[in-house]
Amino acid sequence: ICEVNSSRDSESEESEEENPAEMNMIWIFSRRFQLSVPKLVSRRRVVQELLSDLLQVSHSLFSDSFFPVLEPVIGVGSACEGWSPHEEEDVIYCMFVPLKPPHGHAFHLEPDTTGEMPQTRMRIRVEQVCTCTGKQPDQSKLCFLHHSEQELKRKQVTSLLHTLCTGPYLDGEKIALWFQTFVISAWSVVPQSRHYSMKVLPSCRSCKMKLVKDSGRSLLVEMVFSVQQGDSDIFLSSQPTEAQFPPSTTWLESYAVAEAKFFRQVAMQAPRHSCHLKCLRLCAHLLEGSGISVYALKTTVMHLLTLIPLSEWQHKYLLMRVDDTMHYLRCCLEEKRLKHFFFGNEDMPEEISLPPDFQEAQPLNLFQHLVQDPAAQTEALKKFDKL
């Protein structure tokens, strides 16, 4: 769709290396937009330690229950990728909490065809399974399938089907309320309660927390519940998008874990002081008010990171990469097409694990709305050109 000329002739590269005015401009941009956010890493570690401690408490409390098993958190979103479009006080540290079925239960993913995009909407059907046999049957827990209802009521706690499900389907709103209640009751037990005050913020399908230190410094944390698709890096998320707010038993396909993994791989392979994160943050500021989403910007930079050699993302090339990013976006607006990074992408890094059908799938178009609304494209180009 848009070819990016990553190979510059030696004369232009040499002139940029020796051009103090351009290097000074990079320094000015870095200061003006506070592109370097070293605190993200340290604060992310604080958040991960806190949530790890909370999950340990949950395991001890719910070990004999049939609530979902909470797996170790996975940092997702821009703050966990190493950048953020927001100012420091507005950064949200988002963490996925993968859910596994408890003893005697199984999760089955079913396409939800009630919406316009069935490939991104799923329901998680909870099924009781026999626990009488197996390599290590748990003698302390009765089998839901082969013990009488009276015996189960007398000797065993309630099945997941009767607590956090609506009908046979896992309910995101019920899970969020259950976990929010747990966090409030367990907060005094975790070590961080000695250093932070905590408030659970309103949220229907996630757990949002505001942590405030004695100094007044605050941290915003959001825990989003998720279910992994097979062994892939694609998850189903309890948190709806602004564009879609489906029923509480509908879970939306999320690529956030795969995106975070992609940025970790880039960080390991890119040159020291790579400018790709600064490019993201700077472009996010430049695009404010343009109508182009941060996700479209991030998708663009991810494509460019696979098209342009990582050696060309050194700090001295920041202005070139910003120019490439804006040029690529302009081309996509003209073509009314921006390909989703994880569908039908031949340049997908091998480290990213995707469901088999993703590679064969027709690439999703993030600018499909422009195809359906020519006036929106005209307005988008007009706003973009004003930049």
From TrEMBL:
Cross-referenced Pfam families: Mab-21_C
Bilayer topology annotation: Single-pass type I membrane protein
Compartments, as annotated in UniProt: Membrane
Domain spans labelled Mab-21-like HhH/H2TH-like: 290-349
Domain of life: Eukaryota
InterPro entries per UniProt: ITPRIP-like (IPR026250), Mab-21_HhH/H2TH-like (IPR046906), MAB21L/cGLR (IPR024810)
Cellular component, GO, one term: membrane
Keywords on record: Membrane, Signal, Transmembrane, Transmembrane helix
Family according to the record: Belongs to the ITPRIP family.
Protein name: IPIL1 protein
Organism expressing this protein natively: Leucopsar rothschildi
Recorded name of the encoding gene: Itpripl1_1
